[in-house]
Specification:
Helix content: 25-40%
Distance between the termini: 23 Å
CATH superfamily of the largest domain: Response regulator
CATH architecture of the largest domain: 3-Layer(aba) Sandwich
Order of helices and strands: EHEHHEHEHEHEEHEHEHEEHHHE
Largest sheet: 7 strands, mixed
Strand content: 15-25%
CATH class of the largest domain: Alpha Beta
CATH topology of the largest domain: Rossmann fold
Strand order of the largest sheet: 2-1-3-4-5-6-12
Length: 341
C-alpha cells in the first residue's frame, strides 16, 4: 500500500509541538508496513515562499503537492489538517490519477461552525470523510457519492509511552489541561472544583483557570507526574465525541474521569474509566480513588490496555483504508457501525 499523507507535521516548531493525530496515524501506517510519503503543506508553503513569508508560498505548496502525487503515485491519498491545499488542486490530482481515492479526516468538534464549513467545503471533492463525532451530525456531509464515517481519537505506543497506572508517587492527584473560555460547559465546573476539593486533592489546571497552557516536553512532564485526569470537552453530549485529551490520559495510564454523556459507554465501562453524571459524583469518585490506590491502578491499567488495543493509530488508519476501498474488515472495529454510504 502506497499512501500520501498530508497533514500539519509542525516541522517549524522545532520540537515545541502539540500532540498531533497526524503523527499517530503516520506511525500507524508504518506499523502496517505501508509505504508512506509525508507532505506538511504549512511547512512547504513557508519553505517555498520568498523570505519565508508563508502566505506567499501557498500557490507553490499546491503545485508541489501535485508534483508529489505525480512522482510518488500513491494508491490512496489521506488528508488531515491541510487547509492550504485547495479543492482545485485535489480535482487536478483526480484528473491525473482518477482511480486513486482521496480520504479527508477531521478531528475537530461539530459544534464549531467554522469546522462544519471546512468539511462541507471538502465533501464535494473527496471520496471519504471520517470525523470524530458520530450519529446524526455526520449525515449532513453525505453527498450520495462519498463515504462518511466515524473514527475515534488515535493513540500510539511511541507517543503515549508512559504508564502511570504502575506508579504510586505523583506531584498532583488530579489535573486538567486545555484552553477554553468562560462560556464553555466545563468552565464553571473547573472553578467549583478548585474551591471544593482544594483541601482533599492536589488539583491543578493548565490553560484555563489556573496555570498557563503547556505543550511538548512540558505537557509530557505534567502527564508523567499526575495520578488522575479530567476529560472535559468544551461542550458535552455529542455522540461519541471527545477531544484527543482522552487518548492522552488513558493512553498514558492516568485514571480518566469522563462525563456519562454522548453514549461513551458504547466503548468503555466502569472498569476502564471513572464515569460521573454530576459534580457531586465526580468529587465523590475522585476522593474514593484517591484513598484506594489499588482500585485506581486497576481501572487505569485496564483503561490503558483497552485504549491501546482498540484505538491505536495502526487500527484506525486500517479501518479508513478498508472502508474507503470496500475491503473486508480485518478487525472487529467497535465503531464500524457508524458508516454512511
Amino acid at each position: 500500500m502506497r499512501i500520501i499523507h498530508s497533514d500539519n507535521m509542525m516541522i517549524r516548531r522545532y520540537g515545541q509541538t502539540k500532540v498531533a493525530t497526524g503523527r499517530k496515524l503516520f506511525n500507524g501506517m508504518i506499523r502496517n508496513n505501508w509505504k508512506v510519503c509525508e507532505y506538511s503543506e504549512r511547512d512547504i508553503a513557508k519553505f517555498e515562499a520568498p523570505l519565508n513569508i508563508k502566505p506567499l508560498g501557498i500557490r507553490a505548496a499546491n503545485r508541489r503537492f501535485i508534483e508529489t502525487c505525480d512522482n510518488f503515485r500513491p494508491d490512496v491519498i489521506l488528508i488531515g489538517h491541510s487547509d492550504l491545499i485547495t479543492n482545485k488542486t485535489l480535482l487536478e490530482i483526480k484528473k491525473l490519477m482518477p482511480a486513486v481515492p482521496i480520504i479527508y479526516r477531521n478531528v475537530d468538534p461539530l459544534w464549531r461552525e467554522r469546522n462544519i464549513k471546512v468539511i462541507n467545503w471538502r465533501k464535494e471533492v473527496v471520496d471519504a470523510i471520517f470525523v470524530t463525532t458520530a450519529g446524526d451530525p455526520l449525515k449532513q456531509f453525505s453527498t450520495g457519492k462519498n463515504i462518511v464515517g466515524h473514527i475515534p481519537n488515535a493513540t500510539d505506543p511511541a507517543v503515549e509511552d508512559m504508564d502511570n497506572s504502575q506508579k504510586t508517587e505523583f506531584e498532583r492527584d488530579l489535573m486538567y489541561c486545555g484552553k477554553g473560555a468562560k462560556t464553555d460547559d466545563r468552565y464553571p465546573l473547573i472553578v467549583s472544583l478548585h474551591e471544593k476539593i482544594k483541601d482533599q486533592l492536589r488539583f491543578e489546571t493548565y490553560g484555563i483557570y489556573g496555570k498557563p497552557p503547556v505543550w511538548s516536553h512540558a505537557y509530557d512532564q505534567v502527564l508523567a507526574t499526575s495520578k488522575m485526569g479530567l476529560n472535559l470537552n468544551r461542550f458535552e453530549d455529542w455522540p461519541w465525541y471527545t477531544s484527543a485529551r482522552l487518548s492522552q490520559l488513558m493512553g498514558n495510564g492516568l485514571l480518566a474521569f469522563v462525563w456519562d454523556k454522548g453514549d461513551m459507554r458504547h466503548f468503555f465501562t466502569d472498569e476502564h474509566v471513572a464515569f460521573f453524571s454530576n459534580e457531586d459524583e465526580l468529587i465523590q469518585k475522585a476522593i474514593e480513588f484517591q484513598n484506594d490506590d489499588a482500585k485506581r491502578q486497576a481501572v487505569a491499567a485496564a483503561g490503558r490496555a483497552f485504549y491501546h488495543e482498540h484505538f491505536s493509530g495502526q487500527r484506525i488508519v486500517k479501518f479508513m483504508i478498508e472502508t474507503t476501498l470496500g475491503q473486508p474488515y480485518s478487525n472487529d472495529y467497535i465503531w464500524q457501525a457508524e458508516v454512511y454510504r
